[in-house]
Sequence to fold (464 residues):
Amino acid sequence: MTGEVHGIAARRAARQMIAVAGGPDLLIKTLGPARIESPLAALLDTRQTTEHHVDEGDRVLLDDTLSMVRARGGSVGELPSFEPAGPRRKIFFDPSKTRAGIVTCGGLCPGLNDVIRGLVRNLTNHYGVRRIVGFRNGYQGFIASYRYDVVDLTPESVRDINVDGGTVLGTSRGPQDPHEIVDCLERLGINILFVIGGDGTMRGAMQIANVIGERGTRITVLGVPKTIDNDIPYLDQSFGFQTAFARAAESIHAVTVEAKSTPHGVGLVKLMGRHSGFIACYAALARNDADVVLIPEVAFQLDGDGGLLHHVQRRVQDRGYAVVVVAEGAGQEISHSEQAPDDVPSDASGNTGLRDVGALLRRRFAEHFAAAGIEASIRFIDPSYAIRSVPANPYDSVYCVRLAQAAVHAAMSGRTEMVVGRWRRRFVHIPMAAAVSKRNQVDPHGDLWMSVLEATGQPVRFGD
Ligand code: F6P
Fold:
């Protein structure tokens, strides 16, 4: 199957192939045939044969083990696969007549400014797109009643923005009327909209693309997925995640020093991670001195001989101190039964409110040690926004630049309703529908959680 798919028959055939292999629908939509010679075509002229190069007509396999491939059945050509990212010889948009827009939505994440900068520089320097605007404060920036100006973005205006965390465009949570958004795009003559955000943002982007489709307008909607929780599927890792967990590891170190330095010290760190405990797992492994890691994916009990409280007490008695790392979404059932009244509101993105597991654990540790006649010192750190408001580290900066480049190449070729990502170390195109179809979570039976269990020595589960 080639990277370019045009026409209903070709699309149906491709869908059938994907259905045979039993995988997700990974077909990428395009606005139409790409007929314009790309200014980057010369780059692709030399035939490349190294294992690091993926040709634009090749596909990147979804599965990477023999057993997964065998379980699919069918032939090699039927295996589910992604379209590779990268420059195409032919593009859809005429750069000199193209106008692009960029918006950032949702919570902060290290690297947002790197992505904005990368998009602007690649559009301008490589394709010669001269008109790029930024929309302020997320999807609100398109809505007339908010009265936000658009910002002209040039390589000069974005030159130093990656030095700072946050986003120069501002951000907000929550959907806005997709019809009003498309009205705004049409009014400004935008051909390409880059949307940087999480799953809620991508759902909003799909609604925008639907309205565009209904109106028969030729506007590309291209996503760069953003989440420090690393919970978007079909990505090796999301940008900013590495910076965030490195920062979180500093809090684990601080709390460990505190716990070690007091008699019967208990260090407790609460980290972000609403439904996915990746930050907690990676930060804990980075320091490799936590005694317990608690994540949303693995339920636990506090009381009883096999419960968390006794385990922490034993560690304190054996070693003098203990360190517990908890993801904010862990133990919600326990918090629920213990915290009344139960009025934790959802946020504007529709995320269910979380009960404060940090406060709960802190109180229960204090009560437990007091009841056991042990004078414990509980030290609690919640670094919260401090881990996501920082600039990207060099690793994430590189990742952001490459994602931005991939997004520009895809957009200029007329691809739409897709996000860019890295899968098994290859940059690929992922349909937005697939990117929001499920949540990436720590597998309680997978090797990451096994590493955490090995590193902490905690039991497989806290319970009876
Ligand atoms: O969705 C990412 C995230 O960082 C979560 O881990 C966290 O619960 C949430 O954002 C908090 O963001 P805000 O306070 O901006 O709504």
Notes: Residues 247 and 387 are 5 Å apart (CA to CA). Residues 41-238+392-423 form a domain with the Rossmann fold fold (CATH 3.40.50.450).
